[in-house]
Specification:
Layout lengths: L2 E8 L15 H5 L7 H17 L4 E4 L7 H6 L6 H11 L1 H7 L11 E4 L9 E5 L6 H4 L2 H11 L6 E4 L16 E4 L8 E6 L20 H10 L7 E5 L2 H4 L10 E4 L2 E5 L6 H14 L5 E5 L6 H7 L5 E4 L5 E6 H5 L1 H11 L5 E7 L2 H4 L9 E7 H6 L8 H14 L6 H4 L2 H17 L7 H4 L1
Parallel strand pairs: 1-2, 4-5, 7-8, 10-11, 13-14
Antiparallel strand pairs: 1-15, 3-4, 6-7, 9-10, 12-13
Length: 448
C-alpha cells in the first residue's frame, strides 16, 4: 500500500497583522506595529501550496480561526454587543484587542502533534491539539483547532483526536514545531523525535536566561503516552538554552527533519552526539539508515539562521530518493546562508535542490515555510478517509484565490482592528470558507 506525507498548510486569516505579540520571536517583535497586507499574505501562502501540488506533492489546507475572538474578550470582562465589546476593548485595553485579532493560527506547525498509524498502539493516526500555553494570543486557539481537525479527519476508524494538555506552564506544548518523525518509508514504523526547551519538574535540565522555553519535557512525554508510542520508537532531546536566548523559540527555527535525514545547526541541541547515536540506533531497528547534515557555526551563525529562517524550511522527499529544500526569499538575501546552500546542493549529498518562495508577509510576523504546514503521514486508505474538501486541487486553488480576493483587505493596522465591521467581514468570509472546504459548522459564531 502506498503512503504519503501530506502537508496541510495554514490559510492566512483576514486579520493578519503585525502585533508584535510573541516575546522571544525576533521577527515578530522587530516588525511590531507595521502595516500588514492580509490579502498578499494569504495569496503568498496559496501560491506555495499550489506550487508544491504542481510538483507532485500531496497538499492540503487548514482553515484559519475566527478573529477577533469576541468570546475571549467577554471572558476578560468586556460586555455588550459584539461591536461594543470590540470598541470597549480598543478604548480600555488595546493590547488585549490586538491579541484577540491575531492571525497566528496560520502557523499550523503549532496546531497539533501528529503520530502516524504505523507508530501507534491502536493503528490509528493520532492528533493532540497544542495548548500553546506560553502566549495568551495563541492559547485561545486550541478549541477551534480541535473542531477543524475533527472535521478534516472525521473517520474514527482511522483517526483519533486528543484534547490539548492542561493549560499550565508545566505542560507547555507547542505542537509539531518541536516534533519530527524519521522513517524509511511513511507507511512503515518510524522514530518520533520530541525536542523540549526545559523540564518543569527536573532541575537537572538547564533553562534559558532571557527568553522562555515554550516546550516542556513533561508535555512531550504526555503526548507520546496519549498516542500510544513505544519507548523504542521515541527519542527526546533538549534544545540548547543558549540558542533559545538568541531567538530560536521553536526547534523548527534551528533544525528540520524528514525521512531518514536531520538537517540541523551545530548549536541546536545539548548532548548532540548522544542524541544522534540514539536516533541512528532506534531507526536502524525499524530498517532505516539515519543521516544527519550539520550546518557548522563557522558557515552560518545562529543569528544568520534566525534572520533568514534557513531551518524553518520544508525538507521534501522526491521520487528519486533525493530531497528538496523549500526556503524563504530571506535565505537568498543572506550572503552567508545562500553561499552555504549553493555549496550544499552541489556537494552530491542527499539535499540536491533548493527552491525559494516569497513569504514576506508571514516572515515579517515570525514564521516561514515550515511554520505554515502541518505534516500528516497517511497510507492510501487513510488519505481516502480524509475530508476531500481540504485536499488541494487546481479548482480548489482557484476557489480559494477568488475567496481571498473577495473578502480580504490589502492593508491592516492596529486602528483597523478596532473597526467592528472587520468582525462582520471575517465571519462572512469564514462562513463561505466552511462551505468551500466542506467543514460544516466549526466556528463559534456558527455554533452558538
Amino acid at each position: 500500500m502506498k503512503s504519503y506525507e501530506v502537508n496541510f498548510d495554514g490559510l492566512v486569516g483576514p486579520t493578519h497583522n503585525y502585533g508584535g505579540l510573541s516575546y522571544g520571536n525576533v521577527a515578530s517583535q522587530s516588525n511590531s506595529q507595521q502595516c500588514s497586507n492580509p490579502k498578499e499574505a494569504a495569496l503568498q501562502g496559496l501560491a506555495k501550496m499550489k506550487a508544491l501540488m504542481d510538483m507532485g506533492f500531496q497538499q492540503g489546507v487548514l482553515a484559519p480561526q475566527e478573529r477577533p475572538d469576541v468570546a475571549a474578550l467577554r471572558r476578560l470582562g468586556f460586555a455588550g454587543s459584539d461591536a461594543q465589546v470590540i470598541q470597549q476593548a480598543a478604548k480600555e485595553a488595546m493590547p488585549l484587542l490586538v491579541a484577540s485579532c491575531s492571525a497566528s493560527s496560520m502557523w499550523v506547525a503549532n496546531a497539533a502533534t501528529v503520530s502516524p498509524s504505523a507508530d501507534t498502539a491502536d493503528g490509528r493516526v493520532h492528533f493532540t491539539a497544542a495548548n500553546l500555553n506560553c502566549k495568551y494570543h495563541r492559547s485561545i486557539e486550541h478549541p477551534t483547532t480541535s473542531r477543524v481537525l475533527g472535521a478534516m479527519f472525521a473517520n474514527q476508524q482511522h483517526f483519533a483526536h486528543h484534547a490539548a494538555l492542561p493549560a499550565v506552564a508545566q505542560f507547555g506544548d507547542e505542537g509539531a514545531a518541536n516534533h519530527t518523525r524519521f522513517c524509511r518509508a511513511y507507511g512503515e514504523a518510524g522514530v518520533e523525535f520530541f525536542v523540549f526547551g526545559r523540564s518543569a519538574f527536573d532541575s537537572r535540565f538547564p533553562s534559558p536566561q532571557k527568553y522562555p522555553a515554550r516546550q516542556t519535557l513533561e508535555a512531550s512525554r504526555a503526548v507520546a503516552r496519549l498516542h500510544g508510542l513505544s519507548e523504542e520508537g521515541v527519542v527526546y532531546a533538549q534544545q540548547n538554552p543558549a540558542v533559545i536566548d538568541q531567538g530560536v523559540f521553536h526547534n523548527d527555527v534551528i533544525a528540520v527533519g524528514n525521512g531518514e535525514v536531520l538537517f540541523y545547526h551545530e548549536d541546536a541541541f545539548l548532548e548532540t552526539e548522544k542524541m544522534l547515536a540514539e536516533l541512528s540506533d532506534k531507526l536502524a531497528k525499524v530498517g532505516g539508515k539515519f543521516q544527519s547534515v550539520c550546518v557548522p557555526r563557522s558557515a552560518v551563525t545562529v543569528d544568520d539562521a534566525v534572520r533568514s529562517y534557513l531551518f524553518n524550511s520544508q525538507l521534501l522527499s522526491r521520487a528519486d530518493g533525493s530531497m528538496l529544500l523549500i526556503v524563504p526569499e530571506e535565505c537568498r538575501g543572506n550572503e552567508r546562508v545562500w553561499q552555504y546552500l549553493q555549496g550544499l546542493t552541489s556537494s552530491g549529498g542527499v539535499i540536491r535542490e533548493v527552491k525559494v518562495f516569497d513569504l514576506k508577509q508571514s516572515m515579517q510576523n515570525g514564521g516561514g515555510p515550515a511554520c505554515l504546514r502541518l505534516r500528516v503521514a497517511l497510507n492510501e486508505t487513510e488519505l481516502a478517509a480524509v475530508n476531500p474538501g481540504v485536499i488541494m486541487t487546481a479548482p480548489l486553488y482557484d476557489s480559494l484565490t477568488q475567496w481571498v480576493e473577495t473578502h480580504y483587505r490589502d492593508r491592516m493596522t492596529e486602528n483597523d482592528l478596532a473597526d467592528p465591521q472587520l468582525l462582520l467581514e471575517c465571519r462572512s468570509a469564514l462562513d463561505e470558507l466552511t462551505q468551500i472546504l466542506k467543514l460544516g459548522s466549526v466556528y463559534p459564531f456558527q455554533i452558538n
